[in-house]
Amino acid sequence: MIEVRPGGRRRIDRVLGPGYLSDLGELTLSVLRERRDEAAQEETDLSYLRRLLHARIDIVRAEQERRSSGGERSVVESLAAILADNAIGPATGSGRHQQLEPSRAGEHRRFAEALIGDTDLSDVSTLSNEKLLSALDRYADEEVSVSSYRREVQGVMDTINAEIATRYRKGTASVDDLLDTERGGLE
Hints:
Elements: H1 11-15, H2 29-69, H3 75-88, H4 105-115, H5 129-170, H6 175-186
Helix pairs in contact: 2-3, 2-4, 2-5
């Protein structure tokens, strides 16, 4: 399971650390934006891990359904439909548009695969019903944990965005300054 380690060096440790939101009013606008961007990247990575877990949950559930209904078609043969059903179903996320790419895709994929080290999901049809249920429970527990941390990170982003908006509203920050900064980065 993912855990936050106070004082740790990982991005999630910083973003959810006790001092990350301290004294926001004292920070420069540039530092606020850096923190918001760091939190946004962590949220993107957590969202990616969450999607990986959902895919694995869907595969296990599809195999359970196939067994209970006596279906002949293997999960592998149905994989595209299984994963597409989740993609076109009702949205259950935060509704936030993400422009970032996951920065730790390989790490998250290995983490999800390692959750069930003794279970080879490439051939779920060979697993006992007990192992399928165990895999589903472990993936579901991890998804709950990842979703919880993701919501916390979104709260950090919301708090920082509120501080930035307050500065614009009060006139202590201006769009002209932002545009000048952006243009300076392009030159």
